[in-house]
Design goal:
It is built from 14 helices and 14 strands. By secondary structure, the protein is of the alpha/beta class. The protein has a seven-stranded mixed beta sheet, sandwiched between helices. β3, α4 and β4 form a beta-alpha-beta unit. The chain is globular.
Length: 383
């Protein structure tokens, strides 16, 4: 059975060129970058080249890049490091209502410690209004985190406008760019943010590697201790192959961005047109235009997403859904709740996330499968 992988929002296949670069750091250049001898220096050179590549991809300076174990750790460090540097025991933080759990749960933990957290409202189109964010700002607000592109519905947020407003009110601005980096332009100066998160495995790099951009002069302090690595900002012997893979993937993604984005966008549009025109009771969640090129998020009225995903899986098509069911009761994801999607539509939502590796033929095969499976599930479960 052929496999059609449409879950690139969860992770991507590492690119052969990335793997090739990484392998050298598992074989020949296996040194500890902190060692002063030749073998260590080779590993150090790999880490520093990766830092330059990630910085260049983001329009940042190499010294503003801190390597982490991925997007989740970078989000955590961004928030906790700012709280620490500002010496805060309490205060107000604004995040969007549909942040990734790495941001959301870090902030909910702070709430339990006495901080006040506002979850700023999202529009039905999956886009946050900067005016709404500004209305939530208070004299005690010190940090704001609004993601660049949402991981479920792919909508792109007006981060630049929000960062301008944050700075007008003396607030530090962070954005989680895990889903946008390498897919649409992500430039720290264009966006004007103080802190920004990226992850390697969403851009055809390895899992377990990511980076936090920290603009020079941003109030930020390390929260972990134990070694001088990453200029004492993040201790621990570096994940050299992972970091090298991130650097290679970032360089490749940005170099190929325009070409890949256009190709992936055309595939996406074919899938969207095919579904909306060919399957009654289907709808697209999130703004059709202001979304990352590879994200498609549908609801199929009356079709439980878990049934649809299982049927697609049997045909080798990998997609995803975000509802959670236990003891027969199902809840919608916080993202779909945040955009006000009715529960019935949220529980029938399926995400397809495309990448440069997908083809037109895969889209057409999936369209055919969707028409057949959606029709059959509806016939078998008449409502
Ligand atoms: C928006 C967003 N932020 C953070 C993360 C976490 O990144 P990582 O898997 O590298 O920890 C993800 C992963 O799905 C994500 O989509």
């Amino acid at each position: 059975m052929r496999t059609i992988y449409f879950d690139n929002g969860a992770t991507t296949a590492p690119d052969p060129l990335v793997i090739e670069e990484m392998v050298r750091y598992l074989t020949d250049y296996y040194g500890n970058p902190s060692s002063g001898h030749q073998v260590g220096r080779e590993a150090r050179a790999g880490v520093e080249l990766a830092r330059q590549r990630v910085a260049a991809a983001l329009g940042a300076k190499p010294q503003e890049i801190v390597f982490t174990s991925g997007g989740s750790e970078a989000d955590y460090l961004a928030i906790r490091g700012t709280v620490k540097a500002l010496g805060r025991q309490q205060g107000h933080i604004i995040i969007s209502a549909f942040e990734h759990h790495a941001v959301l749960d870090t902030c909910l933990a702070l709430e339990r410690e006495g901080f006040i957290i506002t979850l700023a409202e999202i529009g039905e189109d999956g886009i946050i209004d900067p005016g709404v964010v500004e209305r939530e700002m208070r004299p005690e607000t010190f940090l704001l985190s609004v993601m660049h592109a949402n991981n479920e519905i792919g909508t792109v947020q007006p981060v630049r406008e929000i960062a301008v407003l944050a700075h007008k009110h003396g607030i530090v601005a962070h954005t989680d760019a895990v889903q946008s980096f390498g897919k649409i332009p992500v430039d720290v100066n264009e966006l004007g943010v103080d802190l920004l998160t990226v992850s390697s495995h969403k851009i055809h790099g390895p899992k377990g590697a990511g980076a936090l951009y920290i603009r020079e002069g941003t109030p930020w302090e390390p929260i972990n201790f134990g070694g001088g690595q990453e200029a004492t900002r993040r201790p621990g012997t570096e994940n050299v192959p992972g970091v090298v893979g991130l650097g290679a993937a970032a360089e490749m993604a940005v170099r190929r961005l325009e070409e890949d984005a256009e190709r992936v966008r055309l595939l996406r549009e074919r899938l969207v047109d095919g579904v909306l025109n060919g399957i009654s009771g289907s709808s697209l969640n999130g703004d059709r235009v202001r979304r990352i090129p590879g994200n498609v998020h549908f609801s199929f009225k009356g079709v439980p997403s878990r049934d649809l995903l299982a049927e697609l899986d049997q045909r080798g098509i990998c997609a995803s859904g975000a509802s959670a069911c236990s003891s027969g009761a199902c809840t919608a994801s916080h993202v779909l709740t945040a955009i006000g999607l009715p529960l019935a539509l949220a529980l029938s939502a399926v995400r397809f996330t495309l990448s440069k590796d997908n083809t037109l033929d895969e889209v057409d095969f999936t369209l055919e499968a969707l028409c057949e499976v959606v029709g059959r599930i509806r016939r078998e479960n008449p409502r």
